[in-house]
Amino acid sequence: MTTYFGARIVLACSLTLSLFCPVRVRGGNVGLAWNPSSDVRTAGYNLYFGLNSGAYTSSLDENANLTDTVAGLTPGLTYYFAVTAYDTNGDESVFSNEVTNRLPILPWIIAQPLTQTAFAGAPVTLTVSADGDPPLSFQWVNGLAPIPGATASLLTWPQIRGADAGNYTVIVSNPWGSTTSSVAALTVIVPPSLLTQPQSQTVIATTPASFSSVATGTAPLSLQWYYGTTALAGATNSTLAWASVAAANAGSYRLTVSNSAGLLTSSVATLTVLPTNTIATAAGVYNGLFFQTNADGTPAVTEATSGFLGNCIVASNGAFSAKVYVGGLPCSLTGVFNISGNASATIPRTGTGLSNLTAVLHLDLFNGTREITGTISSTTSGNAWMAPLVADRATNACPQFAGVNFLLSPGLSVKSPTNFGWAGGVVVNGVLSLSGALGDTVAISQTVPISKDGNVPLYVSLYNNSGLLEGWINLAGGVGTGNLAWVRPSGVLLPVGFPQGFNTVVQVTGATFIHEENTGITSLPVPIGKYCYYMATKFTASSSYAGNGIQANLTSTGSPSCNLTAMIYTDSGGIGPGALVGSASSPVSASSLTGTETLITFSGSSFALVSGTSYWLVLKTSGEDGSNYVNWATTAYGTGVLYYSGDGTAWSLYQSHWGKFILFSQ
Question: What is the band of 402 on the pLDDT scale with cuts at 50, 70, 90?
């Protein structure tokens, strides 16, 4: 062998990549580079390597190449490399400097994550076992989406959800490479649940009916309807329907839903089947209002699109007739409710120059509201409108009411009156006859029945049908409340001005009274002096009632300055009151009384009366001037009995001439 002393082959001086002599190490492959020999006789190069320094067990003829990648090496072992140059005769140079390097171990998976099936709510863990040179890192992936924070060898759910189902893989990495696991399919079985429950319903015989429910859960879902405890053959869908129900179909129904995770039973839904003549139970007289509403639900009342459904008489066969008032003009409405309580009819406005209206109505036959609901609408081109309607059935539900007194606050409009209006009325057989005046002095009046809930629909056309007062008043509990829309156009001339007109809300506050009895006295014969005197009348409560106010018609002789107190006592069983019922009123000064009969209100009392029970209404007076005294009314209201007492214990009969008193709740 010939040795080339001037052309020694030199291996790369560094294992790290560089511009001159890069060395690459990745997995089982090592990339080497060396300097060219300066001897012109050099024909090629041999690359030697092995597991021990200087003892090379393998070689590669590199020909004239100056770089090569040695493949198939075992990761984790240390290899030693050297290069020689040779000529065409096969003579070889001495070995270059030796390069050594340990090959890193790439990540590899020892145990793959396993496919699993779990029930929703159970704990689940996916596991991978991997090896390779550290540091190892993990990233779990669902489908193609890396899972934030899932960077450990375990992927755990304390309670698995249906949404967690998917195909999971894990990428294991170190600085020299990465590997991806096989797919672990995670199947989550969600137990059945019901998004909607079947609802009880009431229908009329021969009409359609159905129960339905929306079920969810892992498919396949098995559904079964039951009638009581009996499974209904073929009833295995989410809807149970009848084209024409019969009385035999009435009863309790439920739905079961099941899958491999369990079984769920719905709530019980009751089907009530009424006879075909049910509409007869809703026969009666209905009164109500229709008006549009704003986006916030407040009334949007105008004289052209609002009105009153009055005296709607519904016969036992469903036929009905009524008057519909729009813009103060009455129009006739007739039609027939079908077996389900639905009707539609045209409202002709003959002779008005206005287009006809359409009524779409529903008579409640099932829910006990005793109402007609629906819409009144106009399809006039360029001026179409639709207004919801509610009408209550007159039921004389407040037989204890004898009358009402209201204060009408004019609302907040800067254009509207600042003074209050008022209204008062009497109730006879459940029908309220109301009259009064608004804050601009215009008179109002209406007669309308009271509904079972104490509702009164008030509709008064104003200013020659160019304005309107409309809204509901409620008298429940003996307290009058409500909000009325008051529409006044511009140009109206009254003692109270406001020529610009306005549309404002009138707030109603007031009270009802229950006993407007011919029970009282015409005068008090005993002058009120230095001592306390009492005047009283005995009465029997016509109904059970709880109240907190007393009114009496009083006059004065002279100018009394005494205080007056009103109270109710039980009957002692003899002549005279027994025990105080509730509490006495606050004192009222008699100084405001004159010789003209005045209805005086005593507030602050409380009492609860039992129907058919006898009581005493007592007025206690105290003062200093025996020349000035109070009389209990001056007008004769009937024949009755007056008693008086000087100290409230011994009572004497005086005369049989009654005045008037009123008990109320405010």
Answer: low
